[in-house]
């Protein structure tokens, strides 16, 4: 019997330990002790499932089992199933522009192509096929990436690209940026997770996160064994962020013995689409300073702004403008990516975190953890290089680059209006304007009969609505419960990414479904 064998083995090791053969070993100077359980505690059911599997879904890390990620949750799985059955699905559940027909920007792809196929640079016709600045950039990158894009880079990313990111930030904010405080990562997701992993020590460690939020935060906090403290954004005031609400959430958390260490804000917001004012950012910084909380500024949508009243301002810029004591005390982690903006290069996985006022020793520890992954992927770094250091006026690629970006941004702005107007034209739907980012997050006032029908089907009402929408129209959305919403309210999130040519039929399909649904449950 397995248990008897385990008991025999453990007792043997302990006996050996008594004779001076301690069950411990060392790796790289670190001494490890055998964490073997006491013999009496070894049970078959802890070692394997009754079907014999050791890696059984009920026998995994508890944090893994408790983690949920709605963007690829039940709705997405059903959509995938319908797609396999031959139904046409519009995947508006994820902010993945190229999947819905957005075209890549030409310049970064030319540079990427040359970096991936460096032998093209030896071809005498290369200057006929590629503009001179793309060729020059590829040569520069290949010279900086020792061994080309097939070699690991430093675990924080290539130094030249980190330098380019620092210059980009300086130009954007007009304040100094240190490349030593910038880590390149496989998309912003990895940067966020690196930081959360380092911050969360145990269950009491808490991170304040907006409700609604992007589930990268809820999922990662859960995965690392910490606690999420939600603060509500005010839907009636355009999903605005209120300091009184931050104070309420913090007080309640502290009264319950939680140790609040970080505060996430997403600007422009996902899923809300709201843009923070400079005043809001000042309040956040003041709050973080007074309460000694690390600010996590998720600024991945900084280019995606569709109104002129509140242009994007980075938290770092505002922090500097506030002078001392804030400027050199408030600990700030700022995240950015190549996945969003007008590039939408989600698949290339390029992102970064900039750490402001973070203790050098803590940065070293994060470096150590990044090193476990060896290196962020190189193509993501090349894409990032092109986007933070784009063609300049007078260079051959400049005009096309600006034209492509400008027309995509203008189109996104039109689509933001089309989607918001479409939702607000429907009975029982209210929707704040998508000021920024890529999403629309309407509230659906579901009639009581629909709520009852959902309960009878064993589904949350918003999940029920989104499933019915999917089955009827092929439109794949994410229910509001995946992001968090005030109790008793129901939302869904869709992207504004269908191309303009299909947007009106997208909106029409939605409207037709919604009207029929509301009539059925009136
Ligand atoms: N932060 C926010 C607010 C995001 O919305 C996303 C991606 C990320 C970080 C991470 O992006 P990358 O890892 O690709 O850099 N947004 C997801 C979403 O809600 N839809 O698509 C992906």
UniProtKB/TrEMBL annotation:
Q: Give residue ranges for domain Aminotransferase class I/classII large.
A: 131-504
* Keywords noted in UniProt: Aminotransferase, Pyridoxal phosphate, Transferase
> What does the record note on quaternary structure?
Homodimer.
Q: Which domain of life is it from?
A: Eukaryota
Which molecular function terms from Gene Ontology are attached? alanine-glyoxylate transaminase activity; glycine:2-oxoglutarate aminotransferase activity; L-alanine:2-oxoglutarate aminotransferase activity; pyridoxal phosphate binding
Transferase recorded as keyword: yes
Q: Which PANTHER family match?
A: ALANINE AMINOTRANSFERASE (PTHR11751), GLUTAMATE--GLYOXYLATE AMINOTRANSFERASE 2 (PTHR11751:SF373)
User: Origin organism of this chain?
Assistant: Astrephomene gubernaculifera
**What biological-process GO terms show up in the record?**
photorespiration
Q: So which cofactors does this thing need?
A: pyridoxal 5'-phosphate
Write out the pathway annotation from the protein's UniProt entry: Amino-acid degradation; L-alanine degradation via transaminase pathway; pyruvate from L-alanine: step 1/1; Photosynthesis; C4 acid pathway
Catalytic activity reads: glyoxylate + L-alanine = glycine + pyruvate; glycine + 2-oxoglutarate = glyoxylate + L-glutamate
What does the similarity note say?
Belongs to the class-I pyridoxal-phosphate-dependent aminotransferase family. Alanine aminotransferase subfamily.
What is the name listed in the Swiss-Prot or TrEMBL entry for this protein? Answer: Aminotransferase class I/classII large domain-containing protein
